């Protein structure tokens, strides 16, 4: 029983991490069709925002507020200066966002160096959960991730911005004909996706080594989360995260982590091949 509880909580932790990272990607890819290869770098920016705030004497909670603002502003600038000009050129978008990822990585290295940077979690205690001792911060991360997901569902279903986003996803041309400013929706959606990635970076940072390349580790898996779950579908992000995170955690108990990750990605390719619309289509 303790082993099952521990495995389940570890799976929920990984699922929550992937869900947070993939949520912003689902908005960008599902709405705009943009394959944003620089998405992982916004996770890195969030983690380095935490380091910067704590190095300046601030708290984890302050960084949790500042990082999404930084991600949103940087995402807005990139959408206006680069992405907006490439909507009808998908190959150019891939090359441009890949180039942006390299630029951001090197900029972070120039600013902070290549060595890992120390950050601290808001609390280090452990709690008893069904007979096992588990880090309280991981439990907080799980609860917070689902709270963010619930908040995004409310925004997409109950606000004018959410209505505009869903309209543009369904039929951008018709949405424009009805008076929706699709370009503004694109800009806000891209910036919101960047903000969510930066938020994820703050939450992930206390669990991993904070380096300029840390975001790369989550890029491929977050793409598979979106594709398996269903592009443009927030419930699909939950389903895709459960599939990738749960299966990876289960397999990693019996095989090396690299083999587990490769096996999960192979199974994800098979699912996408036979169900290209995803588990929960938009």
Automatic annotation (TrEMBL):
It comes from the Bacteria. The lineage of its organism: Bacteria, Pseudomonadati, Pseudomonadota, Alphaproteobacteria, Hyphomicrobiales. Its main location: membrane. It comes from Shinella yambaruensis. Keywords: Amino-acid transport, Cell membrane, Membrane, Transmembrane, Transmembrane helix, Transport. It is found in: Cell membrane. Pfam families: BPD_transp_2. Belongs to the binding-protein-dependent transport system permease family. LivHM subfamily. The keyword Endoplasmic reticulum does not apply. CDD domains: TM_PBP1_LivH_like. The keyword Coiled coil does not apply. This is Branched-chain amino acid ABC transporter permease. The chain crosses the membrane at residues 12-35, 60-83, 95-115, 135-156, 194-216, 222-247, 254-274.
